TrEMBL record:
InterPro entries: MetI-like_sf (IPR035906), UgpAE/MalFG_permease (IPR050809)
Protein name: Permease
Subcellular location: Cell membrane
Region (Disordered): 1-45
Recorded GO CC terms: plasma membrane
Key words, A-Z: Cell membrane, Membrane, Transmembrane, Transmembrane helix, Transport
Domain of life according to the entry: Bacteria
Lineage of origin: Bacteria, Bacillati, Actinomycetota, Actinomycetes, Kitasatosporales
Transmembrane segments: 52-72
Mode of membrane association: Multi-pass membrane protein
Species per Swiss-Prot/TrEMBL record: Streptomyces alboflavus
Compositional bias per record (Low complexity), positions renumbered to this chain: 9-24
Length: 127
């Protein structure tokens, strides 16, 4: 089969010496063999996922250095007040000030409306 199915190659196996008439029809049987396009890669059976690890490590490092570390560093820095020269711990005071700010509330509402509009356009084919 050209579609990559399990091809069967006709292979003759010799009949045993004491073959009787009842078992003579089993003298020729079909034994499945692999064709070249069905060859198994050397590391495909064992450690297939571990074999990919050296190739995935640079991507994990890239994501960690450029996305994960800055995120946690920003969250950590949000608990401090920093003027560029000195830094003092403020705890959640920055978040309390943010919750009382009317401009932040309006910008948060605008962002949520933008996200809802974008998601609804993607779900419908009208946009």
């Amino acid at each position: 089969m050209a579609g990559g199915g399990a091809d069967m190659t006709d292979t003759t196996t010799p009949a045993p010496a004491a073959a009787t008439a009842a078992t003579a029809h089993r003298a020729r049987r079909r034994i499945p063999t692999r064709t070249p396009h069905q060859a198994v890669r050397p590391g495909a059976r064992r450690g297939g996922s571990l074999a990919a690890l050296p190739w995935a490590l640079p991507a994990f490092a890239f994501v960690g250095v450029l996305l994960v570390y800055p995120f946690f560093r920003s969250v950590y820095g949000s608990f401090f007040e920093d003027n560029g020269f000195t830094s003092s711990y403020t705890g959640i005071d920055n978040y309390a000030r943010l919750a009382d700010d009317p401009i932040f509330g309006r910008s948060l509402l605008n962002t949520l409306m933008w996200v809802a509009g974008t998601c609804s356009c993607r779900c419908s084919s009208a946009c």
